[in-house]
Amino acid sequence: MLWRALRARVPEGSYQNGTSVTAVEPGAAGAVVATAAGRQRFDLAVGADGYRSLIRRHVSPESGPAPAGYAIWRGSYPERLLAASTIQMLYE
Length: 92
Description:
alpha+beta
């Protein structure tokens, strides 16, 4: 749901599927994102890149991955089992 909500707000031609980011360099006017194809400046970089996050080190340099202490992992809880009010809240 989060990915769909973010993706819906990105214009066609601005989203690059299947591109691995090798570095992110923050700056006063956005971020420079490096890939195998080169470097490009963006107004915003969203760090949804998992436990080996390239973004995390810029947002919170002291933090790192830690066990969550629960058994439900991302994507393993079927949306159809959520209450309708919860689903509605996520789409607002």
